[in-house]
Amino acid sequence: xxxxxxxxxxxxxxxxxxxxxxxxxxxxxxxxxxxxxxxxxxxxxxxxxxxxxxxxxxxxxxxxxxxxxxxxxxxxxxxxxxxxxxxxxxxxxxxxxxxxxxxxxxxxxxxxxxxxxxxxxxxxxxxxxxxxxxxxxxxxxxxxxxxxxxxxxxxxxxxxxxxxxxxxxxxxxxxxxxxxxxxxxxxxxxxxxxxxxxxxxxxxxxxxxxxxxxxxxxxxxxxxxxxxxxxxxxxxxxxxxxxxxxxxxxxxxxxxxxxxxxxxxxxxxxxxxxxxxxxxxxxx
Length: 284
Ligand SMILES: Cc1cc2nc3c(=O)[nH]c(=O)nc-3n(C[C@H](O)[C@H](O)[C@H](O)COP(=O)(O)OP(=O)(O)OC[C@H]3O[C@@H](n4cnc5c(N)ncnc54)[C@H](O)[C@@H]3O)c2cc1C
What we know:
Layout: E1 2-5, E2 7-8, E3 11-12, H1 14-30, E4 35-40, H2 44-52, E5 57-62, E6 70-74, E7 76-84, E8 87-99, E9 104-108, E10 117-120, E11 169-173, H3 182-192, E12 195-198, H4 200-204, E13 225-229, H5 235-238, E14 246-251, E15 264-267, H6 270-282
Parallel strand pairs: 1-4, 4-5, 6-10, 11-12, 11-13, 13-14, 14-15
Antiparallel strand pairs: 2-3, 7-8, 8-9
Helix pairs in contact: 3-6
Bound molecules: flavin-adenine dinucleotide.
Flavin-adenine dinucleotide binds near residues 174, 202 and 231.
């Protein structure tokens, strides 16, 4: 069993000690051994800790360049100063990402170690041409056959004409739109010339394909008009539609969170409100 260990405050992070402690009896049950992978800088105490908590083998990568962090799934990146305890760190990367069960947006900083690393979900930023005479440098790849741990057996691409992230009008359906009502979302989008999108709950209920999910692990949209039908307004959804210029929400619950983000709201059952909107839009 291999435990990829986390290094914290000069020693092994508590969670790594916990994982090693769990791996030990599991490995014993299988008649195997426990290996600990430890990467970082100045690992002496972590090496001792790993042996204490049951590692038979320690794979140690001790290098100052490894002592850094990565903020994953960022929703924004900025260069700014940061002051702590009277010291100002000048012009470095602010990595903004949802935290604490996505209930808040946290700004992560990595002031003392390098590199500063962040990953970003697709659709969070807009692409904008900025042509340069780029210097092209080849990077030598030195892989042995055993290094290739993943083999691509097949590639299946789902083609869609939907470029959701650039659509000027988006009509999104949520769990409040049942299988019987989903056609109403599509019928509302048609006369508006809008793209149909969905919340995660609607995707998981099989109403829509995953490529049309808006939100933290879906697409970020920035339309002129976003219509949310039967969407509650969970933070993870809102994060993907916040750049919309005008938001219209339809929900039967007058206290639904989505209304806090809407410019216009319609309280009512989508089975009732959507047909009325469709008729109004279709009438000359
Ligand atoms: C790590 C993580 C990432 C996530 N990423 C995403 C993401 O990318 N996108 C996303 O959408 N979610 C995401 N979620 C899930 C998110 O937390 C919510 O669960 C989800 O957005 C809820 O979808 P919903 O609003 O459609 O459903 P619900 O929260 O179930 O809300 C349904 C709404 O419809 C209303 N309603 C019900 N019936 C009717 C009716 N007949 N007429 C009118 N209104 C009605 C209800 O009042 C309710 O407000 C993520 C969650 C996690 C933990």
